[in-house]
Amino acid sequence: MPGTEATSLLPRHGLSCTLVAHALAICMTGALLGFDLCVAGAILMPVQRSLHLCYPCEGDYTDADLAACTCFDKQLAISAVSIGATFGALFGGVASDWLGRRRALLVSDVLFALGGACMSYATHDLQSLFFIGRSLVGLALGLGGAASSAYLAEIAPSAWRGRFLEANELCVCTGCLLAYLIAFGLGDARWRLSIGLTSLVALFQLLLLLPLHESPQWLQLNGFAQRAARARLALGIPGDTSSSSTNATVADHVPRAATAAPRVVTLLRALRRARRPLRLALGVAVAHAATAANTVLYYSRDVLQLAGLPDPLLANTAVGVAKFLGVAAALALTDRLGRRTLLLSGTATMVLALTGLALAFANASAPLSGLALVSLLLFILGWDVSWAGLMLTVIAEVLPHEIRGAGTGLAYALYWALSFGTAQSLESALSELGAAPTFGGIAVLCIGVMLWTWQSVPETANRKLEHTGADIIAERVPVAPNDAPDEPPDEAHRA
């Protein structure tokens, strides 16, 4: 039978059914992230009407009028998620290191559910409820993004690590596409139901996470050697207690509170030792934020409306399809072509697409709607082939295990802090400067990102996770993915 044959192939690739089931459950965090990122842009206009954002505004409050109308509250309705995500990632990375990846994900699901409920019950008289809900969702995004990336990186076999992390991004795209489809299917009048579905999905994932094992590497590092061994056995991960942690001999019953203060000192020392890979991880976050891709996605409906598309909400669904196809391509290619190739080619595609958007809006009174749509789809495609999924992949791979949660959280927090700036200013730039100069400026930034990536980002594909961070600390340049060694660095290189 086809199903039996597929199952029998898993052990040949170092995968067990339990391991795959754990990965799929964790990837639901990506679906929640994608849904909440995209649904806000899809329902922004009915939210403007219901909550009276940017009122009074010139015109007759048609969709075109609302798209052209900008104000602080409207931009905050989009950017509030970045505020929450900044703090969620900042503290979530540390929380996932201290509490465990699984517990951090459980907390993120609770925050997702609360945020979705707050937004769906917001009214004109209770506008603040919508902003609170967006901020709670942002906290969940930051916390869940850092914890899920660390978890997937730690349970994945070396040859499958890129695909595991890209599978999470594929779920982001699935959630994004579903958000557009649901918003289109339910219509603007039922926007509360569209955004309230976040709560149901979050509670469903919470139930799935309850029986899952904690990351064996996290258990080993924190002294739970027996539980780590049981988790490895259940997941089918080969045991390696000798190199996973210096605390492997600590008993499983060590009180957490008794070790809290030394853990802070230990973490600070580990961050200092790993400052070179940490700088690289932070640089990757800055490079991704400089593309302004998330913000362009948020305002994609407004951009399409300004371009004169007859049905921008339906065209938004095409954006979701392009996003899905881009990540599907990255999923298939990331472990074959390597991270650098996809980052460079994807960024080059974004430069081309942004140039097309600038040309489409060169004549603001008569924009080229067809060119604008094609360019926007190409931009989303290039982004999802590259930075959308590979930012956290590269960050998780270059950081040593001792600071992977905290370091990922710091980099993710920096990314969301910078994203808040672009989300709060893009629409103002479109209004004050015009669409053509705005997109042209972002294209220049993407050229700078491409040059920095060529110069600074090493190849980390197909290398054992514990080797990449050590190599960067030792200032060794990782080898090409097809020649990646499976043996640790020799003593001469360490010296």
Relevant terms:
495 residues; disordered N terminus; single chain; globular; 0% strand; disordered C terminus; mainly alpha
Walk me through what this model shows.
By secondary structure, the chain is mostly helical. It has one domain (14-212, 274-490): Up-down Bundle (Growth Hormone, Chain: A). Helices cover 76% and strands 0% of the residues.
General shape: globular
Please state roughly what percent of the residues sit in beta strands, choosing from under 5%, 5-15%, 15-25%, 25-35%, 35-45% or over 45%. Answer: under 5%
How helix-rich are the residues, as a percent range?
A: over 70%
Q: Classify the secondary structure makeup into a structural class.
A: mainly alpha
Architecture in CATH? Up-down Bundle
H/E series, N to C?
HHHHHHHHHHHHHHHHHHHHHHHH
Beginning-to-end CA distance, first to last residue: 54 Å
Kindly state the number of beta strands: 0
Would you identify the regions where 5 or more consecutive residues have pLDDT less than 50? 1-9, 240-258, 476-495
Overall average residue pLDDT: 78
Q: How many helical stretches? A: 24
Main sheet: strands, sense, barrel = none
CATH superfamily: MFS general substrate transporter like domains
**CATH class descriptor name:** Mainly Alpha
User: How many individual domains?
Assistant: 1
Computed Rg: 22 Å
Oligomer: single chain
Tell me the CATH topology: Growth Hormone, Chain: A
